[in-house]
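note to self — DONT lose this again. spent like an hour looking for the file last time. sequence + predicted structure for the chain T wanted, 113 res
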Amino acid sequence: QVKLVESGGGLVQAGESLRLSCAASGSIFRTMNWYRQAPGKQRELVATITPGGGTNYADSVKGRFTISRDNAKNTVYLQMNSLKPEDTAVYYCNAQTWVSGYWGQGTQVTVSS
C-alpha cells in the first residue's frame, strides 16, 4: 500500500524559512513533486525532482526553494527560504511510479507579513 506522509508545515513570518518533508513507502518512486494550493486557486506545481536528481521549479519560487531527495529513505524535501505571504498554501507531495501517481494529505504553510 502506497503511503505519503508530509510534515514540516507551520506559521512563519515573511523572510523566514521552513523545510517540508515527505516520507514515501509502498513502491518504487520515480519523479517526485511538490504542489501547492492556495484558497480559491488551482493546485500548482512548485518543484520537481527526477530519480537522478534533476530539478525544475516554478518561476515564482526559483532561487528561494530547493527540492532534494534521499532515495535510500524514499523521502523528498522542500527547503523554503525567504518566504513571502503569497507562499501561503497547503503543500502536497506527489510521487510517480511507473503506473500511477500518488498524493499526500497536505501540510499547511502560512506566512504572515
